[in-house]
Amino acid sequence: MAELVPTCVWRASAALITRLDDAFGPPLDTYVNGSQVWLREDGPGGVVLEWRLHPVAGYVRPKGVATEEVFELTAAALATGQPGPAPLERLWEGLEAFPAYGDEVEPAGLSRACAAALGVPPDAAGLVDHDRLGDEWERARGTISIVDALFAELTRPPAPP
């Protein structure tokens, strides 16, 4: 039986990236696949949430920019209207937040907590099968959109019991 994870998702935009930088600062961790991660006690009752900025399908790091510099340079450029290391649409497609350590949280409570922490309500919230989505992404070697898959899962009617 699939383990469903409460999740909130936002589509990437210049306003979201600058808000993320203003509210959370630099990411705690960065990955060569383009993911940017923050772990924060923003969930209901102080539950630790993982905030993950998902890269576009087929992400390629901008030339001459270290993996750990991509977010900060891009956020600063978007905030000032200057050119960044690459256009936003070539870097990230969305932000996801979910309980980092498997804590049980209701999607509605998660949505409220995320909106309060970030200052922007999520575009969608609900339950997703992270294992299945991660397996699909791995099989496709990063060439599918994780954010599109999350939105599809969040808008799909629940399966009958």
Number of β-strand runs: 6
Summed up, the helix count is 5
When the domains are counted, the total is 1
Q: Secondary-structure element order, as H and E?
A: EHEEEHEHEHH
Order of strands, main sheet, comes to 2-3-4-5-1-6
Q: What percentage of residues falls in helices of 4 or more residues?
A: 25-40%
Biggest beta sheet summary:
6 strands, antiparallel
The termini sit apart by 11 Å
- Report the mean per-residue pLDDT as an integer: 92
What structural class is derived from the secondary structure elements?
alpha+beta
User: Overall 3D geometry?
Assistant: globular
Describe this structure in words.
The termini are close together. The protein is 34% helix and 21% strand. The chain is globular, with a radius of gyration of 15 Å. It has one domain. The chain has a six-stranded antiparallel beta sheet with strand order 2-3-4-5-1-6, sandwiched between helices. Strand 3 and strand 4 (49-55) form a beta hairpin. By secondary structure, the protein is α+β, with helices and mostly antiparallel strands.
